[in-house]
Amino acid sequence: MLLRQLEYLVALARERHFARAAAACFVSQPSLSAAIRRLEHELDVPIVRRARRYEGLTPEGEVVLAWAHRILAERDALRQELSALRGGLTGTLRLGIVPTALPAASLLTNPFCERHPRARVSLQSLSSAEITHGFAEFELDAAMTYLDDDELRHVRRFPLYEERYVLLTPDDGPLATASTARWADAAALPLCLLSPRMRNRRIIDECFAADGASAEPAIESDSVAGLYAHLPGGRWSSVISHAWLHMFGVPEGMRVVPLKGPAHGPRVGLVVGEGDPQSVLAEALLKVARGAGVRDALDALLHTYLEAPGVEE
Q: What does the pLDDT read at residue 263?
């Protein structure tokens, strides 16, 4: 049995199509099909359910796939450990990040790359469910996500920061001169918010509801960048996480107003697998995270934009 055959099987299970799996592995479709048939012959079990097209794996194939993930992960861990012994980490750190944490990712990835210049980082913007799947399939080394996600299992959690919510509003708007604003007051403004399928939006909706209000935004976006693209011009207001200020700042002609409510939102943190094999790259990122001071950096940035030291801790 060759590792290449296992790689082909993993690709086929991921792509669910022989031609796409072959393209992903940079081989011809006949070569990939022949390699998987050889694997079936060597293990003496049917792995793929075949008809006119790919129809999935047999029960035996699902078992082989699970072992393939483990074996390939062990190979990658071996390579990483040997590279560290030879004078520095190499390889690619596969980091999944929920979209609303992406603006703060550079607070980890920049110091990681400075400390390990021979390593690379592959960032993927993923939903919480996709991150859970990525760990289960050994497709991720680490992730930045909400730590209260009950679906995440067999992982270690390291808190990075708590989301804090502020109002971005035009500097000539009705709340621009307020020292603080209520959620109900913000709900009455012309709003641009993330779409309801985003975890961050659902949390914000809960905050509105706790103040007896309901937000009805005129514009909804499935990305932070899309939301920010609508803010310049003085028409729309938005409720944002303070972490977004790290990447996007405050658009010209707008002001940051603290929202009355809980001092802390949900925790965002770094998660890495707790089982074997351990990813050397993930352990290196965790070590960077322990000294990065992400929470302090984001809080200091928020204080700067508010021009006051009085943000509650």
A: 53
Distance (Å, whole) CA 235 – CA 237: 7
Q: What is the DSSP letter of 211?
A: T
At residue 312, the pLDDT reads 40
Q: Which residues, 6+ apart, have CB-to-CB distance to 6 below 8 Å?
A: 39, 68, 71, 72
Collect all residues with Cβ–Cβ distance below 8 Å to 103 and sequence separation of at least 6.
224, 243, 244, 245, 246, 247, 248
CB contact at 8 A, 152 and 135: yes
| Encoded tokens for 92 | 């690619």
Over the Cα atoms of the chain, what is R_g? 23
How many Å from the N-terminal Cα to the C-terminal Cα in the chain?
Answer: 57
CB 204 within 8 A of CB 165: yes
Distance of CA 246 to the CA centre of its chain: 16
Q: Which pTM was predicted? A: 0.75
Helix (H) or strand (E) holding 267: strand 267-273
Contacts for 296 with CB less than 8 Å, ≥ 6 apart: none
Task: Mark the ranges of the chain whose per-residue pLDDT is less than 50.
Answer: 308-313
Q: Which two three-digit tokens encode residue 94?
A: 């596969």
**DSSP class per residue in 192-210:** EEE-TTSHHHHHHHHHHHH
The tokens for 194 are: 């993330």
Interhelix angle 106-115/280-292, nearest 10 degrees:
120
How do strand 219-221 and strand 192-194 relate by DSSP bridges?
Answer: parallel
Question: How far is 210 from 190, CA to CA, in rounded Å?
Answer: 20
H/E segment holding residue 268? strand 267-273
Name, in order, each residue with C-beta under 8 angstroms of 139's C-beta and a sequence gap of 6 or more.
94, 133
Please state, in angstroms and rounded to a whole number, the distance separating the CA atoms of residues 247 and 227: 13
Tell the residue number behind the tokens 């351990």, with chain if given: 278
Angle formed at CA 219 by CA 217 and CA 223, multiple of 5 degrees: 110
Say which residue the tokens 């920061």 belong to. Answer: 161
Amino acid at 262: P
φ, ψ at 251 (rounded to 5°): -60, 150
